[in-house]
Amino acid sequence: MTLPHILAAVLVAAIWGTNFVAIEVLLRDVPPIFATVLRFFFAAIPAVFFIRPPKTAVRNVFLYGAFMFAGHFGFLFIAMRVGVTAGLASLMLQVHVFITIALAMIFLRERPSVFQIAGAVLAFSGIAFVATQRGGDVTTAGLFFLLLAALSWGTANLLSKQIGSVNMLALIVWGSLATLPPLLILSLILEGPDQALAALNDIKWITVAALAYIVYISTWVGFTIWSTLLSRYPTAAVTPFALLVPVFGMFSSALVLGENLEPWKFVAAALVLTGLAINVFGPRLFSLRLSSQKRRSVR
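RESULT FIELD:
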């Protein structure tokens, strides 16, 4: 990868990491399910008038929207509202990688590698360690909904694999539109119209800015740059930069929101990030070592 493209990948990680700060700011004034409605309303409108539907079954669009948008982001927003700070959310949500691997093993009969199993054990050890530190930064309810968000994301990844090669931008736009009616109904039932109206009537400029960042910077700019990089370089060259997302998430949360970075958070981060690193880099390092040994034996 060229230096400008490396910097672009780091920029996307920074955008997605700081997105958790924007979510927390948004949730201070807007109830979580209604906040999810607003996010995907503006992600879909007016884009649906310019982007054709993806070439896949309508059922796939609804299912992808249900798990990737309603489930993933809906549960994430609820988790951050009821008891997970932005920095911890950015870290713990990364276990979706290993949930995806587990779901693929169960439903697609894919056999996980030793590196994937070892990485999963370390990452979930980090989550278990966080669970022992429940308090102001994380509650039982918050951890529960965050794991539901990770499960929804993992399920969406499996659906994406089953759907196959489609225009992902079109799938995101139309999936966002498909998820709006059920989300709006849930918001009206569980949160009530009064909360939504109060949030709109008393909305602050910083809340609008946070929503704009989530929709246009995180979704549109982040996705466009990331998909461009994936189209130019091998997946193995691009995806490791995603390991920087929780790093930016935790430090931006500390800088902007004043979240305390206690020693136990660094322990949890080390466990989760080491697990992710083993999953990403383990197979390649093993292959390099094996090829090096073969060259020596030939000599």
